Amino acid sequence: xxxxxxxxxxxxxxxxxxxxxxxxxxxxxxxxxxxxxxxxxxxxxxxxxxxxxxxxxxxxxxxxxxxxxxxxxxxxxxxxxxxxxxxxxxxxxxxxxxxxxxxxxxxxxxxxxxxxxxxxxxxxxxxxxxxxxxxxxxxxxxxxxxxxxxxxxxxxxxxxxxxxxxxxxxxxxxxxxxxxxxxxxxxxxxxxxxxxxxxxxxxxxxxxxxxxxxxxxxxxxxxxxxxxxxxxxxxxxxxxxxxxxxxxxxxxxx
Length: 254
What we know:
By secondary structure, the protein is α/β, with parallel strands linked by helices.
């Protein structure tokens, strides 16, 4: 039994002994689903929305951990994983499409994110960018091609509010954004500040731009459809394969 002082204060993950590479997801159930793909998967912690597993993917040790909904809580996981020795992060989440041609179940590889996350603005000036590590973007694209997964590369909007309010939702209309989600910019900022490798791959679970939404055809937002589940299944493998590719590249560089 791990002693209490050996656990991180917020997420309750172990302070030591975790693999240096992680797939981070929002849903604790999705963490379990991705972990089921690993060899020797073991649940190492589960506190609040934070659920973590360790195992290996094709010989590469991996941690899979959930961070819940929203960047303020997610950044706590990113920080405590980094404190525990994780150096490579790939976020595997869901998102809404923001431009035509991106279909439900498709993947979006996020090269950068708009910092509308509700937390990093309290840490840094708004001019500071939220960008992925280029090697992570390339690894995710390569893994998506290997898996035959339809994907797009682009900018995403990380937004704190899930439901629209009095402020117009689409203030970035026409800016060429690929998708909207809720946590990625917090990961990219954390990684840049701490010298970590970070990337993100998102499964499209609906359309968010006004001109893309066909309420009559879709019946409204429903992320539990079969086409989305198929995209999630592909995306989990893509994220793990990308970690393997990054590990191999690091080994070659030694």
